[in-house]
Amino acid sequence: MPLVSAIICTHNRDSYLGAAIDSLLAQDFADFEIVVVDNASSDRTREVVELRSAVKYLYEPVTGLSVARNTGARVATGKILAYLDDDAVASPGWLSVLYAAYQNDEKLAIAGGKVTLIWPEGYSAPSWLSEDLAGNLGAYNLGDKLVYIKNPGLTPRGLNYSIRSTFLAQIGGFNVNLGRVGKNLLSNEELLMTEQALKLGWQVAYLPDALVAHNVSPERLNQSWFFSRSWWQGISECYREKISGRAGLGQLGRGSERLIRGLYKSLKHLSDPAQRFENLVYTYGQIGYLSAAIQTMVSAPKEAK
């Protein structure tokens, strides 16, 4: 059995997928397998995979990133599962760094590394994009030293993510109520995983040398995409709190306080386009959070019946 299973879950990204697979084929780590989970794609995904040898292809008809990740985990044979996004490119030493970290710490459950951004040809970072908001595009940098994550909000990005198979089995896999489903931008599945790991006494680590670069698609450089992304982030946070047993009236207070804070900071940074936009996006996300919280409370009595 291979030591590591490198898994790519993909949905209609044939233009990026080949480069992602090729970056795995170029790894300096020898003992691993590559698994591609085709999550109901309608493009050339299967053809792209079959053009490359030594890649295991699986078709998963039920859409959903968490569903696809669980499918990949079920067929993977490595003790370490390394997830790479279909629009990302791993550095040659990516798997070596990940594997060494797990070998050095038997309590390590989750690890991920630094993520840089690849701008589309002819594009650069827009003036209204703050450093923090670039995280919505996948950017992730906690510095140049190993960091053990204690705050779930700093959890590694899902596009550069690894997990010990025994821990994943212990918690029953990725929660299918969180995570992207087609055009639906639900998230927070990795954050929930970190919360579960820490509660169970496991470690979660940031590894600066486990480097991955993420392609930024042109449509994500529109301000409307960031508002949509933030709306779904708010909904995701509400769902995560429900799963964690923290749903209820308190959500209305937390969401309202954050909404007011976001509006205040938007006005405070009126002359700074990046900070102003960041706080407007944050505020919009709180509206999504509150709407989901209200919907959950309204539907709760019906569910009880």
Task: Please identify which CATH superfamily of the largest domain we are dealing with.
Answer: Spore Coat Polysaccharide Biosynthesis Protein SpsA, Chain A
How many strands?
A: 9
CATH architecture of the largest domain: Alpha-Beta Complex
Helix-and-strand structural type: alpha/beta
How do the SSEs run, as a string of H and E? Answer: EHEHEHEEHEEEHHEHHH
| Top CATH class of the largest domain | Alpha Beta
Residue windows where pLDDT falls under 50 for at least 5 positions: none
Approximate strand percentage? 15-25%
Number of domains: 2
Q: Tell me the span between the first and last alpha carbons.
A: 49 Å
What's the pLDDT, averaged over the residues?
92
What is the fold named in CATH at topology level of the largest domain? Answer: Spore Coat Polysaccharide Biosynthesis Protein SpsA, Chain A
Rough outline: globular
Helix content: 40-55%
Radius of gyration computed on alpha carbons? 19 Å
Task: Note the main sheet.
Answer: 9 strands, mixed
- How many individual helices? 9
